[in-house]
Write a structure and sequence with these properties.
alpha+beta, 20 helices, monooxygenase, 502 residues, globular, 5-stranded mixed β-sheet, 3-stranded antiparallel β-sheet, binds protoporphyrin IX containing FE
Length: 502
């Protein structure tokens, strides 16, 4: 996410360039991989907290009083504070990150969230078309379908079902708000985009109502005041949803954040979990479905992860020809699917790692002055021909096998990423690196696999925003706020595959 639009190659030998941004502090732009690596390592000299508060306030309606409270903590997010003498009880940034460590980033929480997502996404997908044999083909568009079904599954995984009951238009409102994200960030006045303001208002009010209702219904025994700790409650409850949100809410309340402040923050979390992963799954499916040979290879990999029916579980219904379940843990290890994922992230995750200089730092042989911003746009590194170009497969063209190499001394291929952290950073880096990256990866891989496992899909052609046929597929814009949005959709015919359910 970021303010600037960056395009083209660096023309200055990779030295940091200083630019002035609208309504922001001056910024140095880094384009050299070693400098980017230096940026991610320099967590003492660079902070992200102050900039995060500005984004919260501009885009997510975070109240100023709460912003001031967060800004007052300048001790950073790391275990060791940036300066001594700060009581642990005042370290809100540390508490936020400790909470991510306990409830989002580790392998335990990732598998709890992934398993729940798989169940809910399967439930949502089973509703998009009648069971096999009970109807013909249904028409739909990949991105629109995911913006509805995957959004519901991943939001229900995070915050439960109540929000959709409280606000039946929540999905549509969310995407209208998301589409206008950059205008909020630029600080455009309300009268220039009133509909998006109203959509944001509705999303915000729904999140606020959900939190208020969850607090009213919460079992006091599940309430924790110790940030980052398990709260003795279940992984998931019917009021808050995931333990991640329940413990985060308790932590924020403990720091005295207002209900509006907490609603803004949780609206931000709902945005984080959906707004990058869903368009990325669309890119993956569009690439796979646009190439019949790739589709059949990916499908073969996925089919190798299905479990046949057994007489023990299915009695007389046993059908050796029809799969029963998809083995999610095997899906996560599929080399070609992982390569498609990594290639889509390389090409379509256009992120801007932004930090603020606390103290002077030397990068690329230059002294960067405190008070300024430093930005590392991924698009320069991710399209660098020297790192990514392969014979017949330039960096600018999607190549499903780019992240594969032959297994040494064996058969077949394995996943391989040749890049350093400064050359490939779809999830940012350093202390502020995306805390959802492990869950995001699992969610995206299983979403693609479940989609192709559940539905038989036949591409029809590309369509524009009004559903009219388009002569081209989605193109890449110049925004640098995360996953690029698709400006074209892929129209498909689909029907549910035959599947035996116990
Ligand atoms: C394609 C998927 C995703 C991409 C490309 C992505 C990318 C990013 C990036 C670039 C950042 C900023 C990192 C930095 O400044 O160095 C970020 C932050 C964040 N991401 Fe993700 N992300 C994705 C999915 C997710 C998911 C599924 C979650 C789940 C909750 C998530 C949660 C977050 C949160 C909470 C932050 C803010 C961290 C903070 O303020 O310290 N992300 N993400």
């Amino acid at each position: 996410m970021g303010h600037a639009q960056v395009s083209g190659r660096h023309q200055n030998g990779g030295r940091p360039v200083k630019i002035r941004l609208a309504n922001e502090k001056p910024a140095y732009i880094l384009s050299n991989a070693q400098d980017v690596q230096g940026l991610f390592r320099a967590s003492k000299e660079l902070t992200f907290e102050q900039f995060s508060v500005r984004v919260l306030e501009k885009v997510k309606k975070f109240p100023r009083e709460d912003g001031a409270r967060m800004e007052a903590d300048t001790s950073g997010s790391a275990t060791v504070p940036l300066h001594p003498g700060v009581p642990e009880s005042s370290r809100i940034w540390r508490a936020i990150h400790a909470n991510y460590d306990s409830h989002l980033t580790g392998s335990g929480p990732v598998s709890v969230l992934t398993n729940r997502f798989v169940r809910l996404f399967q439930e949502e997908l089973d509703q998009v078309a009648p069971p096999s044999g009970k109807g013909g083909w249904t028409t739909g568009c990949i991105n629109s379908l995911l913006e509805d079904k995957m959004f519901r599954a991943s939001t229900r995984t995070l915050v439960g079902d109540a929000i959709f009951d409280l606000s039946p238009s929540f999905t549509a409102d969310f995407w209208e708000y998301d589409q206008n994200f950059m205008y909020f960030l630029y600080g455009l006045p309300r009268f220039l985009f009133p509909s998006a303001w109203q959509a944001r208002e509705r999303v915000f009010n729904a999140v606020k109502a959900y939190i208020a209702q969850a607090w009213e219904n919460l079992d006091p025994r599940q309430h924790t005041t110790t940030p980052g700790q398990k709260d003795g409650g279940p992984d998931f409850d019917d009021h808050f949803g995931s333990q991640l949100v329940r413990t985060r809410e308790a932590m924020y309340a403990n720091y005295g954040l207002s209900l509006d402040g907490r609603a803004a923050s949780e609206m931000g979390l709902i945005w984080s979990i959906n707004s990058n992963a869903i368009p990325m799954v669309s890119w993956m499916l569009v690439e796979i479905l646009s190439d019949p040979h790739l589709l059949s290879r990916v499908q073969q990999e996925i089919w190798n992860c299905t479990t046949p029916t057994t007489t023990e579980d299915y009695g007389d219904d046993v059908r050796p020809d029809v799969p029963a379940t998809l083995d999610v843990s095997r899906v996560l290890t599929l080399p070609l699917l992982n390569s498609v994922y990594a290639e889509c992230l390389r090409m379509r995750a256009s992120v801007q790692a932004i930090r603020e200089l606390r103290t002077e730092i030397r990068l690329g042989g230059y002294t960067l002055k405190p008070g300024n911003l430093v930005m590392a746009p991924s698009c320069l590194a991710h399209y660098d021909e020297a790192t990514w170009g392969l014979e017949g497969h330039p960096a600018s063209v999607f190549y499903a096998d780019r992240f594969l190499r032959p297994v040494k001394g064996g058969d077949g291929y394995q996943f391989y990423n040749p890049a350093t952290t400064g050359q490939y950073f779809p999830y940012g880096g350093g202390a502020a690196i995306c805390p959802g990256r492990f869950y995001a990866k699992a969610e995206m891989l299983v979403a693609v696999a479940l989609f192709l496992f559940t539905l038989e899909v036949r591409p029809v052609g590309f369509v524009d925003g009004r559903g009219n046929p388009s002569t081209r597929g989605p193109s890449m814009g110049t925004e640098t706020r995360g996953t690029m949005r698709l400006d074209r959709d892929l129209k498909v015919l689909f029907r549910r595959r035959e599947r035996v359910t116990a």
